[in-house]
Amino acid sequence: MGSPAASPTVSSTVGLKNVVIAPLTTDTEEAHTYGDLQLMAGAIEATITPENAEPDIQYADDIEFDVLYPDPKLTFSLQMADIPLLIQEMLFANAIDDNGVLVRTASDKPPYFAMGFKSEKSNGKFRYVWLYKVRAKPITETYQTKEGDTVTRQTGTVECTAIKRTHDGRYQAVADEGENGFDTSKAETFLSEVYEPTFSDP
User: Fold this and answer.
1) Most CB atoms within 10 A, among 55, 94, 196, 202?
2) How far apart are CA 64 and CA 98, in angstroms?
3) CA 128, 155, 40 angle in degrees (round to 5)?
4) Lowest mean pLDDT among 38-42, 106-110, 149-153
5) Tens digits of per-residue pLDDT, 114-132?
6) Half-sphere exposure of 55 (CA within 13 A, CB side)
7) What is the pLDDT of residue 102?
8) Percentage of residues in the chain with pLDDT exceeding 70?
9) In contact, 117 and 19? CB cutoff 8 Å
């Protein structure tokens, strides 16, 4: 028995920035398209959590006979220093009126977006992430009085559900700078548009 293959480079993530969103304007069996990118400044923390990762296992002949995996569904939580009204209008399909006031209506239906960001690693390079089809949930707003000289920052958190695209079933793309042929030139453009994968013919 031979020696194991060398381990890939290990480097922990230590940062978060350059959050961008792009509206998913079309997603059918035939095609998908995205609109223009919008930068979301002020990112503090991003959390991606699988919601339905448990497979449906069928047993037969006293063994594990077959396994069905559910469609992927993720919860994406993004804590922000603030969520400007213009971003809220985009994420939640609200409307800013002629006087610059954000108005929420019962019929507002949050659209789907792609969301991307990068996280600095301890080696000075970055991990890049795209979620292809994300829909925001209504936000919980918290306001707190100042207590003398003590000021408590009231940050905003956007909770989202991420699912697969109808067109091709893809739901996430992740890349580590400097690994697997993902060089600096590819990293520089990764968040300039929604990344679409390419695979060589077998």
Assistant:
1) 94
2) 62
3) 40
4) 149-153
5) 999 999 999 999 999 999 9
6) 9
7) 97
8) 99
9) yes
Q: How far apart are CA 85 and CA 98, in angstroms?
A: 14
pLDDT for 62: 85
Domain ranges of the chain: 17-54+69-189
What's the token pair of residue 41? 């400044």
**Nearest C-alpha neighbor of 21 from the set 139, 177, 129, 119:** 129
The length of the chain is: 202
Which amino acid, residue 118? K
CA distance 75 to 59: 30
Residue 172: exposure state from Cβ atoms within 10 A (0-12, 13-18, ≥19): middle
pLDDT of 136 above 90: yes
Q: What is the pLDDT of residues 88-106, one digit of tens each?
A: 999 999 999 999 999 999 9
Phi, psi of 51 (to 5 degrees): -105, -25
Radius of gyration of the chain (CA): 21
Task: Determine the residue type at 55.
Answer: P
pTM of the entire predicted model: 0.88
What distance in Å separates the CA atoms of residue 32 and residue 52, rounded to the nearest whole number? 25
Per the CB < 8 A criterion, the answer to whether 38 and 22 are in contact is yes
Q: Which tokens sit at 175?
A: 């890349």
Closest to 43 (Cα-Cα) out of 93, 102, 118: 118
